[in-house]
Amino acid sequence: MRGSPLRARRSVLAVPGNDPHKLEKAKGFTSDAVFLDLEDAVPPADKSRARGHVVDALTSGGWGDRVRTVRVNDLSTRWTYRDVIEVVEGAGRHLDAIVLPKVQGADHVVWLDLLLTQIELTMGYESGEIGIEPQIESAAGLLWAADIAAASPRVTSLVFGPGDFAADLGMSSPFVGAEPFTGAFDSALLTIRAAATTADVQAIDGPWQRVADLDGFRARATRSAALGFDGTWVLHPSQVDIAHEVFSPTREAFDRAREVVAVVDEGRGVAMLGDVMVDEASRKLAERTVARGLAGGLGEQSHAPEVATDQ
User: Fold this and answer.
1) Nearest to residue 132, comparing CAs of 151, 160, 105?
2) Is the pTM of this model over 0.90?
3) Rg (CA), the chain
4) Hey, what domains does the chain have and what are their CATH numbers?
5) Pairing state of beta strands 271-273 and 276-278?
């Protein structure tokens, strides 16, 4: 899956898997991606029933071209393998990736890769077509983030889980991401971004839990975007437009980045763009801006300079 065109994940909308009404309603929102949740949003008594609702929601269509993912339960529970089997067998042709929460090491990703391969062989799906999005939510997950990102070519992004991460480390903030803890996750975010970059996959920030605080959400998203993240989970449709604004280059920045790529290519390394010297490092930064702009709909890829993308 790496080496394929970048798909926008500026906003990834959370949708409870046990609520058919919310699953249907989510099809009308404008997020780049969705994750249909079988984990935290679903109480134990509803786990089995929720799988059927998620399969029905995926197979009934209406999602457009957005990225469609399902978050299964983590591997410390008794539900995970049935989550994967029932969802992928029932809706694998309508599914882009499985989100695996609380990943502790590369072995978790390898397990899911092998299970997906067996299901694909059984169902006649194209091998490797379903991606994996590991969620980093613990000290162990962070320490092994680079290995996790590189554990399978199915990995399309690393996702930060700030709530469980804060709990695992014993952080005292009553609101994840709230002041005075705005910068508390910077080190973790940079580690995840570095691991994602090394593996050539995307990095997605976790949710801002104070849903009514849109200014706080914007500040948090702006911070993670500045640290190189490609998008963020959103808990409410009111956050979607803000995420798209924050994680998209402006038209001016996009056009400038295309110029940088073209000028450096023509100059074979170092060149002048106006009164600014640009070089290969400038080109690499510009490539990411171009890729994000294309994924967000700012230009036609066939008319753009050839760029390297995250996946």
Assistant:
1) 151
2) no
3) 19
4) 11-246 (3.20.20.60), 251-303 (no CATH)
5) antiparallel
Whether residue 91 contacts residue 118, with contact meaning beta carbons closer than 8 Å, is answered with no
Task: Match 């882009």 to its residue by tokens.
Answer: 96
Q: Both ends of the chain: CA-CA distance in Å?
A: 7
User: SS3 letters for the chain?
Assistant: CCCCCCCCCCEEEEEECCCHHHHHHHCCCCCCEEEEECCCCCCHHHHHHHHHHHHHHHHCCCCCCCEEEEECCCCCCCCHHHHHHHHHHHHHHHCCEEEECCCCCHHHHHHHHHHHHHHHHHHCCCCCCCEEEEEECCHHHHHCHHHHHCCCCCECEEEECHHHHHHHHCCCCCCCCCCCCCCCCHHHHHHHHHHHHHHCCEEEECCCCCCCCHHHHHHHHHHHHHCCCCEEEECCHHHHHHHHHHCCCCHHHHHHHHHHHHHHHHHCCCEEECCEEECHHHHHHHHHHHHHHHHCCCCCHHHCCCCCCCC
- What is the rounded CA–CA span in Å between residue 254 and residue 162? 30
Query: How much is the average pLDDT of 5-27?
Result: 94
Residues paired with residue 231 on neighbouring β-strands, in sequence order: 204
- 67-82 confidence digits (pLDDT tens): 999 999 999 999 999 9
Residue 226 φ/ψ, nearest 5 degrees: -65, -25
Average pLDDT over residues 191-215: 94
Q: In the predicted model, what is the mean pLDDT of residues 121-148?
A: 97
What are the tens digits of pLDDT across the range 159-189? 999 999 999 999 876 555 454 455 778 999 9
Distance CA 265, CA 128 (A): 34
**Nearest to residue 34, comparing CAs of 230, 216, 235, 211?**
235
Mention every residue, 6+ apart, whose C-beta is less than 8 A from residue 213: none
